[in-house]
Amino acid sequence: MFMNNLIAPLEAVLFASGEPVATQQLMEILSIDEENVHELIEAFDARLKERESGLMLQQVAGGWQLVTRPEHFTFVEKLSQTKDRKLTAAALETLSIIAFKQPITKQEIEHIRGVRIERVMSRLLELELIKELGRKAVVGRPILYGTTDTFLKCFGLNRLEDLPELPTADISQLEEHEQLLLFSEEELSEEE
């Protein structure tokens, strides 16, 4: 009966570790002697077989580890074939612009980046790193975008205020550059 009460803690320890756990460690963690560890391992292994679990116990590298049963490998292999969740340089650049300038429209981002960003925006929305915040009160009512809680989690931030400061000289130069571009565009449209 005593051993049955320790099967669930053993399972939790082996699952949480993800690495082989030495018999000595199990003795310390579960507060039992070596003989009881081996009995517990046998009881747990029998329970896994009895319930036809997809996992099994394996003695590896001097310790015990929960591993996938070989007959289920083809299913686990498909897990690694899931869609890649890495961001391209273009996606990171776009995400940075959104994070620092939100709420911001797609057109404003394209103006800053100088390229079209439909695919990048779709990817960021798909990964739930950005979301629609509403519509800008201008002609055409373009969608405003901002970051999500998923963005904060992925980048280890508690809140947006935890973003690092941007160098002020670069921002003022960028703003001057944007104003010059707008002024040039206005001059061109007046000449036409």
Summarize the SSE layout with pairings.
Blueprint: H1 2-17, E1 21-22, H2 23-30, H3 34-50, E2 55-60, E3 63-68, H4 73-79, H5 89-101, E4 104-105, H6 106-113, H7 118-126, E5 130-135, E6 143-147, H8 149-154, H9 168-191
Antiparallel strand pairs: 1-3, 2-3, 4-6, 5-6
Features of this protein?
alpha+beta; three-stranded antiparallel beta sheet; 9 helices; 14% strand
Describe this structure in words.
By secondary structure, this protein is α+β, with helices and mostly antiparallel strands. The protein has nine helices and six strands, in the order αβααββααβααββαα. It has helices spanning 2-17, 23-30, 34-50, 73-79, 89-101, 106-113, 118-126, 149-154, 168-191; strands spanning 21-22, 55-60, 63-68, 104-105, 130-135, 143-147. The strands form two sheets. The chain has a three-stranded antiparallel beta sheet with strand order 1-3-2. The N and C termini lie far apart (91 Å).
